[in-house]
Amino acid sequence: MVKRDVYLSDRPLEEAQADYIQLLQQAGAINPGRPELIEVEKAAGRITAGPVYAKVSSPHYNASAMDGVAVRAVDTFGASENCPKRLKMGELVRMVDTGDPLPPGCDSVIMIEDIHFVAEDEFEITSAASPWQHVRVIGEDVVATEMIIPGNHRLRPVDLGGILAGGVTEIYVYPRPRVALLPTGSELVQPGAGLKEGDIIEYNTRVFAALVDEWGGLPIRYDITVDDYGLLKERLKSALDEADVVLINAGSSAGREDYTAELIAEMGEVFTHGVAIKPGKPVILGLVNGKPVVGVPGYPVSAVLGMELFVKPVVYRKIGSVPPARPLADCVMSRKIVSPMGVEEFVRVKLGRVGDKFIATPISRGAGVIMSMIRADGMLRVPRLSEGYNPGDVAPVELMRSLEEVRETTVVIGSHDMALDVLANYLRKIHPGASLSSAHVGSLGGLSALKRGEAHCAGTHLLDEETGDYNVSYIKRLLPGRSMVLLNLVYREQGFIVAKGNPKGITGVRDLIRPDVGYVNRQRGAGTRILLDYKLKEAGMDPGLISGYQREEYTHMAVAAAVASGSADAGMGIRAAAKALDLDFVGVVEERYDLCIPGEFRDLPYITRLLEVMELPEFREEVRSLGGYDLRDCGKIVWESE
Ligand SMILES: Nc1nc2c(c(=O)[nH]1)N[C@H]1C(S)=C(S)[C@@H](COP(=O)(O)OP(=O)(O)OC[C@H]3O[C@@H](n4cnc5c(N)ncnc54)[C@H](O)[C@@H]3O)O[C@H]1N2
Ligand code: MOO
User: Fold this and answer.
1) What does pTM read for this prediction?
2) Which of 91, 288, 427, 527 is most exposed, with the fewest beta carbons within 10 Å of its own?
3) How far is the CA of 308 from the centre of ligand 2 (A)?
4) Can you cite a GO biological process for this protein (predicted)?
């Protein structure tokens, strides 16, 4: 099949969303299915197809609400401390337990604690009982014929109790819409399969299945379809026979084997191909045989966003409902966020509460980085007609974690070290409500974040060329007059990360200017970058002669990954990063990595909890096992401002 040119449209998001729902409504494609009768005890999470009325009252008889004696209130009148009244067991004075029917003629219950027995069958009371005291009258909870639950209501566990109390055991709910999930792409392999170059693990439709289930739909996952127009057409046909909604994953953009839009257009109608959002642009919104068919982009983040923005409303409508709005919180931007005009961008952010502000720090924006969805606490929408935000700007963020959790998060901004990940892990283990979020902006970036009040502490390893000491002179210069402490986390080996077996024979900085050596650098402001520059200066070398000096990565692991991929021969970083990817390492120095903490935070749980973790032998052991770490001063204050 020869592909024609593909021009994606740039429709504004709200317009594309509203139009799609309207067109589907007109086509009758998102009407809820015919209600089905199911057992109440299996109905949690389902949507009621109509109101549920009580068949019986609850209680359906007058019931004693306490253990004690049932009486006629009039028989107790006149009783007081000074003038106790005696009652004898009989027809109208009878022992009852909680829940027992009130004996005929009785209208009141006296609690056993308020009774003083004077004989086997006679007792004294010192106050009168009022009529209907401690009695649960008929219908106190539910009155027969009363509406217990309205229609179009998602049933919660307590709702089941109310419905059953009302004597109802079966109810009508909307059927869960069947959503067919079609993964496409010749490069896809099933999870767990052996991988060769070019293989991609198929996980998107697994994520989709869990989402559809969460929204109330019934996912039907199909086998992978290779990139073949005819095969895809067959799949789509059988999916349309079986399901109410069909999702085709990938093949949505302009590639040579991107058939989705063409196929939907051939078999039905494409309303929209291309929405002005990032990620997720190439989404396809269509209709075939009266059923919604959505082409969801292949990249995992684009895919999840496509699901949230276009498929979720369809699934909800099919069960007579609309998606609940995500809660929002106003947050302060910690970094500059540049976003193209004309596109609504969805930026994943980490959140933390520092002082009285919620701080948002953007994380990876790549559409292929599923980890960004895992790490994110929130989603910042940069509107279509905005070019982004400056540090300090306030904007609403959609919460992906509760504010309560965010409040219990220690925010570390600065240089990256793998010991921080281990610290985060043990922190959650011993304080399950707490967490640590780290943003990697380099040591200097971390100190700037402290200056702006956007972090509880900063990871830093800045070498002072003059004194050979770490961090102190930088803090004095960047945060003058502020009360600060330096808490040591680790000493670690820095050096060159090189390929296994060190094939280029790199032994020190002098090798970096060799024409056959490609370097990968760290970003400006990173302690590791400063260390390299210092070493170059020491050796009297011109950085301009190093091929790859301009190539910047943000973490040790990213540098190691560049070496592992073969796109660079060497990069400066920590031994643990080399070890993690089974690379070789040429040691250069041992350096001190500290957490710089503003004095006002040092006694807050954000910090004291970290100190607790640093004392744990298993934490220390795990960090040591990463390789290249010495924890001799871990948890010690190594410097304090006057
Ligand atoms: N020339 C152009 N190229 C691309 C454009 C464009 O407009 N012009 N758009 C880019 C954007 S934006 C996106 S998003 C992707 C969309 O790609 P497709 O929907 O066509 O999907 P594929 O190219 O087949 O796959 C992309 C990528 O997604 C991953 N993938 C796919 N399926 C799965 C799955 N089931 N599980 C996990 N991961 C999956 C995989 O990494 C693929 O490499 O196109 C850009 N290109
Ligand atoms: O728009 Mo694509 O969905 O960014 O990756």
Assistant:
1) 0.83
2) 91
3) 14
4) Mo-molybdopterin cofactor biosynthetic process
